[in-house]
Amino acid sequence: MNQLLEEINQTIALLEATIPANPRSPKGERQADRLEAEIRKYFRALEQAMPLDKVEELYYRLVEP
Fold it and tell me: 31: how many CB neighbours lie within 10 A of its CB?
């Protein structure tokens, strides 16, 4: 009985991996990792371009005269 359940679970995992746009498939996980790296890179560049500790100073100087 356990072996049957194990085989069914393996079959389900194989079928799930072939579903298009499945986030748990190996391809979906690689794409998610790439997206996460790109987003991390974007926010790092944003922080370098406009340091957060300067935002308050600029706000009070330019927006609230």
Answer: 13
Coil, strand or helix: which one is 34?
helix
Divide the 65 residues of the chain into consecutive groups of 10 and give the mean pLDDT of each group.
90 82 81 95 90 85 81
* pTM as predicted: 0.55
What the block records as the tokens of 59 is 């706000």
**Two structure tokens written together for 42:** 């974007």
Q: Which two tokens stand for residue 61?
A: 């100087």
How far is 5 from 11, CA to CA, in rounded Å? 10
Owner of token pair 């790296």: 37
Contact 51, 57 (CB under 8 A): no
- Strands, E assignment, the chain: none
